[in-house]
Fold these 4 entries.
Entry 1:
Amino acid sequence: MTDPIITFDNVTYTYPGTDTPALDSISFSVLPGEYVAVLGLNGAGKTTLGLCVNGVVPTMLGGELEGTVTVAGLEVGEYAVREMAKIVGMVFDNPEFQMSQLSAAEEIAVGLENAGVPYEDMIRIIPETLALVGLAGFEERSPLGLSGGQQQRLAIAAVLAMSPQILIMDEPTSNLDPIGKQEVFDMAARLNKEKGMTVIVIEHEVEVMARYADRVIVLNEGKVVLNGTPQDIFSRVDELAALNLRVPESAALSTLLASKGLWKGETPTRTESAVDAVNTLLEARRG
Amino acid sequence: MQGALPVSLIPGDSVLHRVHPLPKMIWVVLYVVVAFMTQNIIVLYGMAVLALLLGVIGGVVKPLLKAAFIIVPIGSSLLALQLMAPAVEQPWTQIAQLGPITLYEDGLYYGLVLLGRIVACLLMALVVVMTTHPSDLFTTLAKLKVPYTLNFMMAMTLQLIPVFQREVGIILSAQKSRGMKGNGFQAVLPSFVPVFVGAIERVQQLSISLESRGFGSAGHKTSYRQVRGKASDWFLALLAIGVAALLGTVSILRGGWNISGLLVVEPATAVTVWVVSATVFLGIIALALILSFRKS
Amino acid sequence: MAKKSPLPTPAEARAASEHAIVVSDARYVYPNGKVVALNGVSVTVDHGELLGIIGQNGSGKTTLTKLLNGLLQPSSGTVVVNGIETTGRTVQEMSAHIGYVFQNPNHQLFARTVQAELEFGPTNIGIEGEELAERVARAVEFFGLKDVIDEHPYRVSFPIRKLVGIASIVTMEPSILILDEPSTGQDHQTTSIINNLMRKLAEQGTTVVCVSHDMPLLADVVERVIVMKDAQIIADASPREVFADKPLMARTNLQAPQITEIALQTVVPLGGPIALTPAELADDLGARLSSKG
């Protein structure tokens, strides 16, 4: 039985100057190498959750945090964000707002410089990381001249350069066009499957999450209301509808057919499995 | 895209590009110091020519002259006004009379001094900016113990100028699309709020992103950008300091080293200079006014 | 440039014009002369239509919309909006006829209260007094802004701010409304609200043009979609037709909604519908699976 890499133990957090807690008695854990999707309406507490993992909450933003957050065996409140940055990398929803340097290489160097990584290592790590995110040769390019998808991949690179064990992405594709979205989701999937990185993605694109996630956590008004496999969570169409959340259309389809007594198997979480299942049903009728 | 500033690094690999930023920064400082210590127009325009030569060496002459175009309106207004009212102690020596307007010899000389100062310092500053990579500049400042955060903020401001130009453009389009009339300052004013809000949002998000990368925390920091100085760079710096010290001392000893006494100026010359400068200056103002009213 | 004759009111212009928008072979080349952003585009839109323009960044869709409200003037060809040719007209003149809601509401909003924002546009085009108050009241009702009317625009939540951004253009009561990426980055709840608003506006007679790069979003609300790529229109059809056109979808990097993908690979070859919603496909499958055998 592997130890979880992230544990939230009865965490309640209130932002400074507010009365309602942003997170309310949250408990869950994440195993190493898991791909976790976090869903919920805007304001449900998803971003706050992410910021608790790397310590920005409460160290940088203040406020009151009750309960414990443990990451890779370390209790987050006890360590500076700088230390956590070596374990947890976080990428945010606006690619341009994460850029601050005059070249892509320098953007990646920011984290490395602050971690005191020697120059000799930096000149090796930077090109490696750029290649990893598909931006090989982009060292001298100005970040502001890149497309949204490229900027977001650069933001991921800037974080990957520190070799974190956990990657958190907070609505990474909401400001991207379909090409950019594809690039980022493919990237996340590769990092998870090929490098065994623990990936937490906060998103609204449920079809993509259904395809890649090992686990789905649903937040509502600061509380964890659902926590399970995509199979499990996305078959609860009514519950999610009550929370004003979408289910993947494949799941909506199977649930509708099930209510007519026409669907027997699992809830399909991918287009392919839905197509196969439907075609099987159609053939069975014809045969 | 190194920012949409009219003045920025012109990529290149000239001798001048390869000089360490610090000597170059020292030259600019020395130029300013000497320029304001002397009133010798030979020295001043000599400095300007030297800066121009450096521009040639750096391969940036064309952009240099383009950026230096601002000297034309400044220079013409300066000469025209100084000829009419020299910024020196009275008594003034009259050199010509154009109807109600009196032109003074002192004004011609002093106008040239002021212009010379501006031209020399501007050209030198431009040459340095155009041949120095901003990041190297900031790395140098960091080595001079400028606080990391301050340095970083300056570097970021450079990055953000084109961004804000873009934002203001979008906001103006949005307001025009809501029927907002008028150009000029009154039109720009409503855009301040959205730009401000956008800037705040941006800085908030950026600071969380940077914090998450461990930015700005105490402790040893390394530097990715390495700036190497050669012996020749330091030699040049010392040479410059030496020459500057010499010129500066002589100028002080000679009370400014004003050589207007050695020059003979024909009245016709003064009049010509005045007419040309005044025309150029007024012409530019008229053009600016016409253009600003034409924009719908 | 000599000023042209004053424009008729939107209602007059609309009544006098056959179509809402007529673009004839419009070309746009950037001032530097190098980039052709729009390469000979022609399209006709009728009054009261609800359509979408879709394309990747760089496809020309933004240029086309800017030609519609006068932010850009065509290098050649003509753009006629509400019966008025845009050539030589200012954006301000056109703003009474065609409204443009920018993607980021922050780019529009600057007044002290939501009320002031709603009044800004109509005031600029000469609406005042009782007419102004009525228009604002209608918008407040339509968009559900009663609770925030006295709030500072930047104090309200972002989804409400988006609504205020749209409302502040709707109070100008233009005949045509362009919305730029109205739902990008929004959650499901806000997207539904905005989609409903667009439908209602079209029902009331406003021509609504929704620009987006999100196909599933558009499919939910428009009947007609114009697909752009490489500075040209490469398709002008219903969403279903576009989704069914495999080569077209591949060329444009567009993604059909998941349910449409499923339908295309299951019932469509059997003559079934190119479903846009799970309910649609479920109904068809329901019929097929229970009727046979």
Entry 2:
Amino acid sequence: MKHLLSINDLSKVDAISILDTAQELARVSDGPMKKLPTLRGRTIVNLFAEDSTRTRISFEAAAKRLSADVINFSAKGSSISKGESLKDTAQTLQAMGADAVIIRHGASGAAQRLADSQWMSGSVINAGDGTHEHPSQALLDAFTIRKHLSKGASDLAGLRIAIVGDVLHSRVARSNVLLLSKLGAQVVLVAPPTLLPVGIESWPCEISYDLDAVINSVDAIMMLRIQMERMSELFFPNAREYSRYFGLNIDRMKALKPAAIVMHPGPMNRGLEITADAADGARSVIVEQVANGVSIRMAILYLLLAGSQEIGAAL
Amino acid sequence: MSLVLPAPDLTRALTRISHEILERNAGSSNITLLGIPTRGAHLANRIAEIITKSENVPVQVGTLDITLHRDDLRMRPPRALMPTVIPSLGVEGRDVILVDDVLFSGRTIRAALDALGEIGRPKTVQLAILVDRGHRELPIRADYVGKNIPTSREQSVVVHLVELDGVDEVVVEGGPE
């Protein structure tokens, strides 16, 4: 495999091999020497046409721990803000000898376009395209869930996972539904009908409009951010009503199973989809998700870039 | 295909290596065995078992994956990573004995030395190998050798172990007989 564009590109075996690789690489992050020589001499470009803290820094940390050279490139302060097209940007990166481009873009399908075009020859890694997919986030979520709940199994069979909130605008939700169900988990999406996309019936998951009916049956609950910046119309009457029906608060925390974990891809709207008690409580693995993100992204970079492209990859 | 090391000889070789290790290091108190996955890890466990039996104290044993330090990563498809398990006392100031099945170009051992350097600074690093088949490409030699088997480059040396393959043996395949 040369690119990572969508969870649909991965088989169950591929996904598990990424998780296993990340598990071994996590030991490196825990050790005294955090740097490995594996990707020495490779150039990786972080092309972020949309804002990001976690994903960009996480990919940067992952690339640097594997000794790759990282070039950061964001819309603000680059020619993208002068209106340069994706094609011209890609050709510039090709001319500079980028071995891989990690792209975040507001348009769904931007990563696919970059990979399918002849504009550049390197690997393309999708770090979030519009409301489409965010595969590395789903992989780190699956990794976190597996670490806490799988009891040594390599997949997520038998686990029930709720994804709650703004599914309509969430690339994280789509990638997670695809990946978690592929790994054998049962996924239930909980959201007001206005925040579910058209065609949701065909997704491999259950749908509920009532968080309280679902919350006591799940092993993990993933809260999604309400994406105000993508909302051009009114999807719910007001923020207080949304948090009363779909927010994770202290009362709903009590209804969770004893071993259940609380997740959030970040950044959080504290007080809207999740209260501070829930976000900072003992069941919250939100900070750990960030740490796991570095290991997962090291695994992705290793598997896509370390081997020879000519012979064809093990993935 | 020819059988060069049948099961009883393989066991004898490991027993001899174990005793040579004890003799050279004056006992097992400061030694740490690190096997290189996959087969080196099983061999390290066998040597540890023999040493433990003869000294009556458990010996430090673990595994060291070298994949991320290989110099031929770009020449092949990416490989799966194997576990690295460093025993409780670490490697700092210890006499570390690397264990692998076949010594050929020496590149695996070079990578192992790099991997080891990231973990700590051992007092000494020694190398135990079941089969030395020659054709070194780097200035590396083994301290303990189970058997020297002269081969041509076209041949391949295959080590089978009970833990993985159900049988203990070393065979040489291919090339002119």
Entry 3:
Amino acid sequence: MNAPRRNARRIVRDIAHARAGDKGNTSNVNVWAYDAADFDLLKKILTAERIKQTFPYLIRGKVERYEMPELHGLNFVMHDALEGGVNASLNLDSHGKSWSYLFLGLELDGADQES
Amino acid sequence: MVTFRIGTGAGFSSDRLDPAVDLVERGKLDAVVLECLGERTVAFAHRDRMADPARGYNSHLERRMRALLPACRKAGTVMITNMGAANPRAAALRTQAIARELDLKGLKVACIEGDDVSALLPANQPFMDEPGTLADIDMPVVGMNAYLGAEAITPALKAGADVIIGGRLADPSMFLAPLAHRFGWDATDMPRMGAGTLVGHLLECGMQVTGGYFADPGVKDVSNLARCGYPIAEVQSDGSAIITKLGGTGGCVSTQTVKEQLLYEVHDPARYLTPDVTADFSRVAIAAAGEDRVKVSNAGGSKRPDMLKVTVGFDGGFQGEAGVSYAGPAAQERGHLAAEIVVERMARVHGVKSDLRADLIGVSSLFATAGIHAADAQDVRLHVTLRSRAKEHAELMLWEVESLLCCGPAGGGGYRGAITPCVMTKSVLIARERIEPTLDILTA
């Protein structure tokens, strides 16, 4: 269903869908494998550590990951991750509605993890 | 087998009206819920009420009531809403007057109050989930509202109200209350409270479960999103439900839309706190049950929290936003130069130390702090935001950005600027026994 784009590395969006929500200065992003067979890969590549390390200036607090094994989903809770939250952030997207695409844009082989 | 049909007629303060009319007219609903309050919405409503004591309720209430009340009466659908915001009594009085104008004789409008706890909390009340107290905030308080649960709504249902209007009624509680009332669920039956809360949680954001906030062309295609339908839940007495929508409307209900909404704004899926229950969504089953039909079941629940959440709103001053665009060769370089000029002049010429941020839309704005930049943008917009207690600071910033047209880099055009009021909110807790919701019935 989700064929890799030509001349591009495969990204999380090729195998999963996601939604972002906010409460105060905490953001949560839930990520779901389209195909149950990809859930193990999703769990392997989307670790709480990788998320925290990839966006160190954005995510100032801890990252927690909850698993939904029967529905093949992961829920990430990122503390101090909304630039102060909707009350304080001067980001155009002060709710972090677009944060789901931070996850969906990550490469499956982890190449953007280097540093 | 009794099925209770409940739908959403608004999932946020500015949600669409025409699909709500369609839903009530064709949906054969027992109840329709209009969820119109966020933390900041109630703070803005308090500002409105301070400016005019007859205001402070949802600004679309008038149009919504005029469009929906006749349809609700015809269909025998109870409406439950938190459009009362910071002034439920004024909202109920206005609704009663509209019902009389529309000749809806005998329509019973319930007004639920008691969520305003501004007289109950001390100035040094500690925050719910961060260090510090209310006294640390150097801004005027505009209002304090406790989240009321289903037990605040039940008396209005028992009284046979046709329209139930409150202020800070918790989102899922507005769905749980009519379900518990119809099926005779006891408030201590925690699995049922969890199940009804799941239905409320899935429906409270309206179209977010029927294809809104979802479409991603190529991987998640949604048909006819412009005419998306609001959701309906067909709920059974055991708490399981089918999530669906009206035939002929746009959007989609799929296991994917339901999954995304299941954990929307949820942290630990096993512990979702509401005034009614500690709901457990960790083992929820989601199964396709036909076209645009998804069955949800197996929510759990345990003891409700002893403390209720209170949103405290503060007057946050003003936010100014202004922008100028650059296109073609070296658009990014010219945009960066423009940003430097504004930042320097605000600090050095005007001595303004307010929070200021300059983004280059097209290069990096939403993901700027995440460190993600586009390399080859040739059509960029400088976007400057400033927040301050002093409106003058925002006005100066707008002036500086506009002055770039003549005094800034080459080829800058398309200046726009606007100043809007700001609010700030914090969360605190209050013991539930200190809250006493009240009910008043106004008859048209």
Entry 4:
Amino acid sequence: MEFYVDIQKKFQGFKLDVQLKSQYDIIGILGASGSGKSMLLRCISGLVKPDKGKIIINGKTFFDSDKKINLSMRDRKVGFLFQNYALFPNMTIEENIAFGLDKLPKQDRKHKVAGLLEKYHLENIEKRFPAQISGGQQQRVALARAVAYEPDILLLDEPFSALDVHLRNHMMREMSESLKEFQGMTLFVTHNREEAYRLCDHIAVFNAGKVEVFGEKNELFQRPASLETAKITGCKNIAKAIRLTENTIDVPSWGIQIKTSMKIKHENGYVGIRANHLKIVADDTKENCYKAFIADESDGPFRISLYLKIGSKPEKLDDFHIQCEMSKEQRETIKNRTETLYLYMNPEHVFFCL
Amino acid sequence: MNTINFDLSPAWISIKVTLTATTIIFFIGLATAWRMTNYKGKWKGLIDGILTLPLVLPPTVAGFAILLLIGKNGPIGNFLEIFGVNIIFSWYAAVIAAIVVAFPLMYKTSMGAFEQIDSNILSAARTLGASEWKVFWRVAVPVAWPGIAAATALTFARCLGEFGATLMVAGSIPGKTETIPIAIYFATQGGEMQVALIWVLIIFAISLTVIVFMNYWNSYKTKQRFGAGE
């Protein structure tokens, strides 16, 4: 498997400039809406022609501006799973899946469609029309239709965004199974970090039309290398930081100094620690412990977020430095909302980025 | 009570002309609408204007233009004369008049239907290896079908009712080019009010039948696709 994309495309005050090389089966593309990740899929599938560059998938050149190669959509063998699934409303489920199989002899086509109907649990609804089945079933049909065509690369464009939350979890597990069986490459585009983390081992973070970082998912989530990566992977506590020594940084806006286990190489950057990595402890005798006061709190169904101000008492609700997440049981150990708390930042979890 | 001398030939001529013209318009109109839907160039506004023009011009202007083209001294008329063919004042001329006048209805209405199609559906078909021909006949036309059916019904009704341009290019030769609307006009002019009334009722019945049939057929198709379930 080989994936090579190096393209540029300008449109309406936005510039897509992507270099991405990979050998992995599944690549996640994580980015906020408007970061250009869908445009990348459109360029790969041939819907949109890049201004310049190269797209080579598995040794097949889809696009090369120097050699004037630009394969048409039908010659690329790309499976595109659209956000709204784009099923043909005038065809039954069976006909939808068989759409790309015209070249097969009738008997083989029947056999193949039957196999896919069974594999994707669609046996009893094959004569229905797309409008008559549920969202989860529609997604399965769309996937079966794309896979039937045996594409070299499968492009998934926010496939879960049209589903209810409970269905989403279920479909994510199903999708994960299907992708493992799929004999090709998959590009999975999403703005949801949880989906990206669960489905892909390697993730490319997109920001303003560029690949910010591309790497192994745990590395990416635990030690984000850039401010944008920290934000998009969901880190809520980020502040400007200055290097003091190899393992200490000064955070002026929080008014504290923090020890880190990672080595600091640059003078200026940002410090980050995730809300669920912060701990409330009994006292501040250990290092990386700070006095803090509750400014506000918000109640979720299972977990609670505390908004804390470090060092002094807050004057109003939005006067806080840091957000800390805990279970409801832990929250109950704090009796008085105005009492002094001690906040512990584990040096292992504190990261420094640029 | 005096018996009326009733000649049925205008009915047959009208039906012959209308069906021929509607069939031709159906294909040309759909093809043009599809091409224009996919055409994004700078001439779109101008081309669309020219194609829509006969809809807003008086039919007599269309008739005049057709005469210029296919009349004895027109370029097409001249060319056809070499083979000894004369279209003017034949039922072919009536067909041409109907095509020119009713074409914009088919073109405009079905283009509206094509533009409503979710572009992802068409892209999905293309990524699945479909040729443009297959995308058009297997996806675009069936998906846009309710709009196309409406366009066809409107076109049919317009062809059936065509008067001004037809009279100018095909005249009113009884048994040859006299269609129902023309028969109504001359019957009224000649004071044969009963004859005119019968034709009015006949044209009323045909138009209503066609449009009602289209409506029911459409809702049957839609029900088949979207009914049950949910």
